[in-house]
């Protein structure tokens, strides 16, 4: 992905999101089964571990924080043991600004998932709906009015559990008419929000069918444009992101573009919260002015990162940025992108840089690079582009093109990243200044030479290591041997 788009992710930290919605406490119970109960001949599940995490609107706030933004959470809890557990979790994660209101009679919503050997067996739900007394509702609305004026956007997480009262919707409509703020909505009933005219809504396929009263279609992607048009009519939303599970996401903008984004095929550990990641990332992308297509791609990438984790899914800013930079694999074309990736992934690790042409790859190269890797944890290979080699070695070089040479290096397991250089300067000086490795490796034949980069290495405090070369192995010698031999080719057959 282009660097200017990736750089816009840095602006996530400047955005303040108000999250309003239903709080859910997620409980995960790991069990094992080794016997049957004698009284009923049913399996006995022995609990091995129980963990709790913030779900619902709190998980949305958690994901927005992990993506780097400031967050205020306005939600409702009961007055029970699950409420106490929730407050303890909030205390252990104090970054967000909390505005908690309490229902006098109702239970805090809790979803308990029981697993055996990683397989979900049952889900047990506590609590159905929370209501606030009139005085508590007045305080809730007072907080909403004050927080709205301070935030950059509003995220409504409506699970139809009571936090989003009709008075909340009416007040948002009033506030938006006075001061525009983007409002994104995740709900099971978008009709009630049509007067707000949301910036983005994110129904899934099942919800879309229920809202539009349509029947399921064998080709969901083909049906998607019709469904999103009807959803825009129902909700008055500016943009609809229709999630289609394994079939990806179909995005439609009112009087604008329509497109389909395929999802990455990854191992799913837990899909709970994937939609929250997607919409959270999509909102932040919108706020930092990333175009719709790239915004949807980035949001899908964030969701794919999240669902590979155990418990409730989440994606951090660092993980997302590193993933976007590294989407092409080992080869990172832009050295500044590589520097950013190394900064994220190279914490507490020794970064090693070496450079060369690596034209006709031979055993000397293989041995040299393997020993270079032994100098640290992350090995980066800077490789001269074709034009640079021609300037250094003469017009008959390189023998192999840059793409062919990089393809060979990609196959080596001990190389972590490859970056081309030499478009303006044939020395590795600019590469060293950009990446700032801990160790710079050269062959021992350079040990007695004052190299162009030596002054830069010393000024930056970078250690230089010289590695012994394999005797009689060099690209030039191989070329000379080939040119010095007469090769007779016989026709076969």
From TrEMBL:
One Pfam family matching this protein: CTP_transf_like
Keywords of this entry: Carbohydrate metabolism, Kinase, Multifunctional enzyme, Transferase
Keyword Transferase included in the entry's annotation: yes
One of the record's GO molecular function terms: kinase activity
Top-level taxon of origin: Bacteria
All residue ranges annotated as the Carbohydrate kinase PfkB domain in the record: 15-317
Domain (Cytidyltransferase-like): residue spans on this chain: 353-479
The keyword Kinase is assigned to this record: yes
Gene3D superfamilies per UniProt: 3.40.1190.20, HUPs
Pathway participation: Bacterial outer membrane biogenesis; LPS core biosynthesis
Name of this chain's protein: Bifunctional heptose 7-phosphate kinase/heptose 1-phosphate adenyltransferase
């Amino acid at each position: 992905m282009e660097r200017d788009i990736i750089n816009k992710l840095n602006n996530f930290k400047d955005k303040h999101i108000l999250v309003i919605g239903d709080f859910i406490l997620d409980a995960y119970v790991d069990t094992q089964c080794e016997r049957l109960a004698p009284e009923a001949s049913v399996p006995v599940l022995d609990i091995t571990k129980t963990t709790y995490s913030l779900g619902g609107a709190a998980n949305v706030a958690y994901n927005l924080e992990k993506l780097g933004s400031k967050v205020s959470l306005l939600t409702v809890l009961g007055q029970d043991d699950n409420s106490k557990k929730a407050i303890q979790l909030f205390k252990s994660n104090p970054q967000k600004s909390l505005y908690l209101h309490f229902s006098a009679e109702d239970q805090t919503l809790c979803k308990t998932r029981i697993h055996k050997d990683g397989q979900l067996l049952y889900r047990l739900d506590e609590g159905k709906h929370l209501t606030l007394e009139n005085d508590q509702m007045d305080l809730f609305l007072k907080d909403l009015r004050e927080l709205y004026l301070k935030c950059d956007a509003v995220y409504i997480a409506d699970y139809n559990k009571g936090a989003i009262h009709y008075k909340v919707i009416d007040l948002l409509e009033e506030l938006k008419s006075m001061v525009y703020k983007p409002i994104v909505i995740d709900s099971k009933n978008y009709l009630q929000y049509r007067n707000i005219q949301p910036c983005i809504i994110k129904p899934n396929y099942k919800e879309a069918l229920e809202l539009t009263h349509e029947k399921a279609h064998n080709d969901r992607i083909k049906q998607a444009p019709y469904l999103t048009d009807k959803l825009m009519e129902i909700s008055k939303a500016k943009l609809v992101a229709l999630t289609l599970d394994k079939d990806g996401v179909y995005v439609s903008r009112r009087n604008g573009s329509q497109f389909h984004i395929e999802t990455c095929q990854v191992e799913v550990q837990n899909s709970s919260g994937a939609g929250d990641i997607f919409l959270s990332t999509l909102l932040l992308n919108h706020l930092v002015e990333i175009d719709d297509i790239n915004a949807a791609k980035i949001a899908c990438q964030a969701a794919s990162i999240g669902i590979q984790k155990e418990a409730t899914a989440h994606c951090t800013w660092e993980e997302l940025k590193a993933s976007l930079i590294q989407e092409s694999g080992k080869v990172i074309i832009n050295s500044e992108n590589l520097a950013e990736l190394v900064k994220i992934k190279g914490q507490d690790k020794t970064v090693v840089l070496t450079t060369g042409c690596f034209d006709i790859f031979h055993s000397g190269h293989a041995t040299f690079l393997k020993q270079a890797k032994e100098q640290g944890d992350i090995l980066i290979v800077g490789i001269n582009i074709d034009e640079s080699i021609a300037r250094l070695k003469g017009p008959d070089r390189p023998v192999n093109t840059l793409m062919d040479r990089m393809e060979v290096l990609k196959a080596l397991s001990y190389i972590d990243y490859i970056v081309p250089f030499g478009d303006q300067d044939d020395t590795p000086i600019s590469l060293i200044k950009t990446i700032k490795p801990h160790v710079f490796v050269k062959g021992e034949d350079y040990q007695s030479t004052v190299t162009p980069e030596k002054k830069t290495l010393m000024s930056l405090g970078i250690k230089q290591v010289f590695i012994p070369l394999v005797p009689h192995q060099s690209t030039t010698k191989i070329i000379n041997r080939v040119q010095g031999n007469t090769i007779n080719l016989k026709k076969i057959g």
